[in-house]
Write a structure and sequence with these properties.
34% of the residues lie in helices and 23% in strands. The chain is α/β, with parallel strands linked by helices.
């Protein structure tokens, strides 16, 4: 597949799948491609009346829902530049992005709208409620009065209704700016990542190559934020490009809600962050595995037990999926090894917003434990190290998926590219037999007193395997390591263990933790966090908030 224009590719998908279901709110309304196209056409008329031009910015801030998808596609297929904003951002950050991105139209959830003051964002012409596409704010009164006339114009233009041959979407070019996606990473500040159409095309082409079994009969559960590039690309845009059916959960994707949706929808593929599968392992599978430890190592019965466990997990995930694709963060090594041993069909990919997002991937049957796969077609990776197989160095990327730079931030753009034009990811890794093995973030790496490189993510993976550890964060503290631990108080309480006792148990296990760690990465002390860590929408801990002042 070679996509010359993303919007024309979407147009062809809409025409071919006109009466097929497109977007559903889980346990709510469903829009087919014809209904979606009609709403998009009406919004294009509104954009035109507002004087919106191709290249103008349209911000979208709200939870996952069918009309979120309509708003996004209406902007993209008009030639405007969608600016997805995570609705979990602080209101001040949302207003900063609206101003910084030069947005002229804002689609927003009614729950967020009262927290936003757009009076001083002078470029903003209109604010529209996502749920029903009604105006919440207009800069000019004539915009508010146009809604009825636009509906009349649509009916007059298409007296027999919109037909597949009527849609004619904007023809984009590869280097043209498609999306501005503001990062929400662990380093503490948002940058507007300028994604070109070639990167969108490259990721759609990759998904078609990686998941050839998916077609217009496929159904997918969207549980990642659509405002984040990972969810946007692989739980929405790719599906729209092949005529598939996407179910938005529309509510906080708790494990209970997710598993219920899997049982009812039976998705053909599952896109997730590691936290989901790690919770399933820790709460449901690890206790069983520990009880059956002897049998899991016994030569004659271990395969039978492993197959039984695998079948139960597959059934819990809907039983109809080709594979579970994990991304957005590293997978706990113990969890990964367990799922690999029972031959559960999962794989771990690697990407970044700046690559829209995919960089490396391998199908589950060829994936290697601890690896993030091989570089995808259309991209190249290299390791900035004298010995890329053995000595970790920064992962650098070149190719079709790489972004244009950071919006209105020339300094940050210059700093993230090498002199010969490769994107510096900020991640450390090695490459062996073509497979990428990540070690951690460059900025997170701690240099020990004897010069050894300590990757806190590897230390945290050890700590997180201990009972009643919900999550942990390792920080440098006056030349040594301190582990910040958020205990699983809820499950401890259910087991009859109160706060003081669980903290005492974990404190007493410090020597056991250190036995599993190299001498240069020993933990000196433990501090307990009563509340969970502040997290990004991908559920990564915002590390910058917890660093010690050494």
């Amino acid at each position: 597949m070679n996509i010359n224009s993303v919007n024309k590719h979407l147009e062809a998908s809409f025409r071919a799948n006109w009466w097929r279901p497109a977007l559903s709110n889980y346990k709510g309304e469903t829009l087919n491609y014809a209904m979606m196209a009609e709403k998009i056409e009406i919004m294009h008329l509104v954009f035109k009346r507002c004087g919106l031009n191709p290249g103008d910015k349209v911000a979208i801030c709200g939870k996952n829902q069918a009309t979120w998808g309509v708003c996004f596609l209406a902007a993209l297929t008009y030639g405007a530049v969608p600016v997805p904003i995570l609705h979990e951002f602080h209101p001040d950050n949302i207003m900063h992005i609206l101003d910084h991105s030069e947005a002229r139209v804002l689609f927003i959830d009614e729950a967020i709208w009262p927290k936003i003051d757009v009076s001083n964002i002078t470029r903003l012409e209109a604010v529209v409620r996502i749920s029903d596409l009604d105006f919440l704010f207009v800069r000019r009164e004539e915009i508010a009065q146009m809604r009825a006339s636009v509906i009349n114009e649509f009916r007059k233009t298409y007296p027999c209704g919109l037909r597949p041959e009527n849609i004619d979407y904007y023809t984009d070019s590869p280097e043209e700016l498609a999306i501005i996606n503001y990062t929400s990473g662990t380093s503490g500040f948002s940058k507007g990542v300028m994604i070109p159409y070639r990167a969108i095309a490259g990721n759609i082409e990759f998904a078609s190559w990686a998941e050839p079994q998916m077609d217009n009969t496929s159904e997918v559960v969207s549980m990642l934020p659509s405002a984040h590039m990972y969810g946007l690309m692989f739980e929405f845009l790719f599906e729209m490009s092949i005529g598939a059916h996407v179910y938005f959960l529309t509510k906080t994707p708790s494990p209970k809600v997710i598993m219920q949706a899997f049982q009812e929808i039976h998705p053909c593929i599952i896109i997730a962050v590691p936290l989901i599968i790690e919770k399933v392992y820790k709460v449901q599978l690890k206790p069983v595995a520990e009880k059956l430890r002897f049998f899991l190592n016994a030569p004659f019965v271990k395969n039978i037990i492993r197959k039984t466990i695998k079948n139960k997990v597959v059934a819990a995930f809907g039983g109809n999926f080709e594979e579970v694709i994990l991304g957005g963060a590293g997978v706990n090594p113990e969890v990964e090894k367990f799922f690999h041993n029972i031959k559960f069909p999962f794989t771990v990919g690697y990407g970044m917003t700046e690559c829209a997002p995919i960089i490396t991937f391998s199908k589950w049957k060829t994936a290697k434990v601890g690896s993030s796969g091989k570089v995808v077609p259309g991209c190249q990776i290299r390791i900035d190290s004298k010995d890329p197989k053995n000595i970790p160095g920064e992962v650098q990327v070149s190719g079709k998926n790489v972004f244009l730079g950071y919006f209105k931030n020339e300094q940050a753009t210059k700093e993230c590219f090498t002199e010969d034009g490769w994107f510096k990811t900020g991640d450390m890794g090695v490459i062996k037999d073509g497979y990428l093995y990540l070690k951690g973030r460059c900025k997170c790496m701690i240099l020990s007193a004897n010069g050894q490189n300590i990757y806190p993510e590897e230390v945290e993976a050890v700590i997180n395997n201990f009972p009643y550890v919900f999550d942990s964060l390792v920080v440098e503290d006056k030349g040594s390591l301190t582990a910040l631990i958020h205990p699983d108080y809820t499950n401890a309480h259910l087991d009859g263990i109160e706060k003081e006792e669980i903290e005492g148990k974990l404190q007493s296990q410090l020597p056991e933790m250190n036995k599993l760690l190299p001498n240069f990465a020993q933990i000196r002390k433990i501090e307990f966090m009563e509340e969970d860590f502040e997290r990004t929408p991908k559920k990564n801990i915002k590390r910058y908030l917890y660093q010690k002042n050494n």
